[in-house]
Amino acid sequence: MSTESTGRGEPDRTLALLWRDRLGEPTGSRGPKQRSSVDEVVSTAIQLADEEGIEAVSMRRIADRLGLKPMSVYTYVPGKAELIDLMFDQVAGEQELPPHTGSSRERLERIARIQWRDYLRHPWLLTIDTSRPPLGPNVSDRWEWALTAIEGLGLTDLDMDQVITLVVGYVSGPARAFVDAERLLRATDESDQEWWERNAPILEQVMEPGRYEISGRVGQAAGEAYAAAADPARAFEFGLARIIDGIESYIADVGETRAGKTRAGETRAGEARLD
Predict the structure, then answer these.
(1) What is the helix (H) or strand (E) element at residue 138, kind and residue range?
(2) Phi, psi at 128, each rounded to 5°
(3) What is the pLDDT of residue 181?
(4) Calpha distance 206→126 (Å, rounded)
(5) pLDDT, mean of each 10-residue run, the chain (275 residues)
(6) Nearest to 171 by CA among 251, 100, 84, 233
(7) 176 Cβ contact list (under 8 Å, min separation 6)
């Protein structure tokens, strides 16, 4: 399993590269005209990761694809740590961030589905540690856009941060399950439903009747639902709906608490005037 993570590069070099377009800085070393660019290096690295996983990304592999000498790649990007940040920020800017419309529920769903598409387009995103995300323009724009979706709902700034973190963080679990299922299907040419059907006769023989009564009943229902829906993303939709149910309930509670405090304050003020 990959142990790559974002936020491990040298801050000055990483930030200069991440914000290179807005800083107006040259993107390569001085001297003769370079044969490639930072953008081409990053795009090639993303292509490699999409095809073979993040562990396949190396300066040598990138150089081979671009027709460069291995060491020359370092004139564009100082190391793999900085490259990972550049890759992460670039994919964060691939999807259009539409204006926020509709209810808070629809806005939160939109945030989650954009994240879902990121993972399905670039499964390697699920294999890197993003505890310290790169503070690049696309990541920053995405975070600002997400927070804007819940601005004005009565939440504190900390609550807003935690709500978006909860929604975005949730997506990785079902996305990983989806990617794993797709990978297994390609490797075995057998669907989950077919796998269960092939195992069922043997399980019926070895499992004592009544010992797994509840799990057997639930498993059968889940299998039937899966076959009927024919949608591997069903668990994602179910979980997302429940999470947003909880967030909406919390927002309503916050509003009621604030209203109650306002009424209590008005009552005390009125009593003070009467005195």
Answers:
(1) helix 137-148
(2) -115, 150
(3) 81
(4) 37
(5) 80 93 60 73 98 96 94 94 97 96 96 97 96 94 97 95 97 92 80 71 71 69 51 83 97 79 57 55
(6) 233
(7) 119, 126
Tokens representing 199? 């195992």
Total count of residues recorded for the chain: 275
Instruction: Please give the structure tokens belonging to residue 62.
Output: 């990138």
What is the amino acid identity at position 43?
S
Q: Enter the DSSP assignment of 31.
A: S
> In this structure, what token pair is assigned to residue 264?
């209590």
Closest CA to 115 of 52, 55, 156, 166: 166
Q: How far apart are CA 59 and CA 45, in angstroms?
A: 9
| CA separation for the pair 199, 220 (Å, rounded) | 13
Do residues 88 and 134 touch, judged by C-beta distance below 8 A? yes
Q: 53: left (phi > 0), else alpha (psi -120 to 50), else beta?
A: left
pLDDT at 84: 97
Distance from C-alpha of 6 to C-alpha of 129, rounded to nearest angstrom: 6
Residue 214: strand, helix, or coil: helix
Using alpha carbons, select from 21, 236, 2, 12 the residue that is nearest to residue 130: 2
Q: Which amino acid is at 51?
A: E
Map residue 209 onto helix, strand or coil. coil
CB 118 within 8 A of CB 95: yes
Chain centre to alpha carbon of residue 207: 39
Residue 150's Cα: distance from chain center in Å? 18
User: Tell me, what's the pLDDT at 228?
Assistant: 43
What residues does 129 pair with on adjacent strands? 5
Per DSSP, what are the bridge partners of residue 5? 129
* pLDDT reported for residue 262: 60
